[in-house]
Write a structure and sequence with these properties.
single chain; alpha/beta; UDP-N-acetylmuramoyl-L-alanine:D-glutamate ligase; Protein-Tyrosine Phosphatase, Chain A; 2 domains
Amino acid sequence: MSSLPSTLDGWLAHAEALHARPIDLGLERVQAVRAAMGLRFACPVITVAGTNGKGSTVAMLESILLAAGYRVGVYTSPHLVHFEERCRLQGKMVQADALLPHFAAVERARHDAGGATAVSLSYFEFTTLAILSLLAAQNLDAVVLEVGLGGRLDAVNVIDTDCAILTSIDLDHMEFLGPDRESIGREKAGIMRAATPAIVSDPQAPQSVRDHAHAIGADLWLAGRDFRYAHLAQQWTWQGRAQRRNSLAFPALRGANQLLNASGVLAALEALQARLPVAAQAVREGFARAELPGRFQVLAGQPTLVLDVGHNPHAIAVLAENLDSMGYFPTTHAVFGAMADKDIAGMLRRMLPLVDVWHLCDLPTPRAARADAVAAQLVALQPGARITLHSGPVQALQAAAAAVELADRIVVFGSFYTVGGVMQEGLPRLHGKHLDSSPQ
C-alpha cells in the first residue's frame, strides 16, 4: 500500500475516489472486508430502518439508555455539517483523530480480503465499516445503528442485530427499493434476524414486512397488536406485551409523529429488558433530554425559524401538519432545495397552502435539482407563486431574513444539504444578525 492519509479529510477524499458508483447496494464486498477485520460486537445491537422517523427513534433510544447509566455508541447518517456527527459515544460526537486508525484498518482489510486486487468499497461502505470498527473497539453496553438506505442490502446490515426497529415505511429511493410500499417494506425488513425482536412502529405495516418476519422466525412486535399508546390531554400512556407505562410526559422532540416513534422505542426496551433493564425514571429523563438537530427544529427568537431535513412527500406532510399546529404567522417564507431524484412536485404540493414566498436554491452536489428547474415545477403547480432563486442555501436564507417581519416565519427544508448548508455558516449568527438589524 502507498502512504496512507493522515487526516480525516484525507481519508474521506480517499474513500470517495475508490468506487465508480456512489450507491452500490449489496453486502458481498462489505461482508468480505468485515470478515477480514474480524469485526463483531460483544454488546446488544439495535438496528433502526425506515423511511422517516429513524433519526428520532435513534435519538430517543440513545437518550433513554444514557439516562439508565449505560455506555452507548451510535451510528447515524448522513451528517448535517461535520462528518464526525455520524458517530456518537456517550452522547458526544466522536473526535476526528479517533477515527483515523479505523479508516486505516478498513484500508488494510480491503487489501487482505481482495488479494491481488483490493476490494472496492463505496464511500458509504468504507466510512460505515470505519465507524463500526471504532464502536466495536469501545467497552460499550449497547450500540444503536441507523440504516442508510433500505435495509437488506445496506452496509449496516453486515452486523447481526439483537433488535430490529422499523419506523414508518413510505415511498422514497424507489429506484433502489422498488415501486410501492410492499417492495420497500420487504427491503427494510431485511434487517430482521431469526428469533430476535423485530419492532414495527408503522401502524399500517406492509404485508411484506409481516410475511418476512414470519418466514425467518423473527419475534414480530406490531404497533396496535403487541404495543399501543394513548394520547391524552397533558400526557400519554403506553402498553406493551407485559409492561405498562403511565403518565408519560411528551418527548422533547417536536412533531406529530413523535409518539409513534417513542412507542416503538418503548417496545424495543421491553423486548430487551432482560439484557438492558431500564427504570421508569430513565424513560422520563431520556424522553425529556432527547435532541435531534434539523428535525422540526424551531429556533428561539423572532422571526420564527424552523429547520427540517424532510425530503419526501410523507415527511413533508408531517412537516406541514406540524407547521399548521404552530399558530398564526402573517407570512411564511420557505428556503427550499432538493435532490433531483426526489418527488419534488409531491413535496411542493404539500406545502403550497402554508408558504407565501419561496426562496429556491441550488445545492453543492451534482445530484441536486437546479433552483430554476424547481421553480418551473412550482409555477406549474401555482402560477402566481412568489419566487426568488439563489446560488445556495445561505444566500436563500439571507434573502428571506432580509424580507421578513418579526412576526413572520422562515422554514428551511427539502434536504440535508439545505439544512446543513445554512447550519454550516453559523445559523444562529445569521438569525441574530437579522434580529439586530430589524426595526423595533
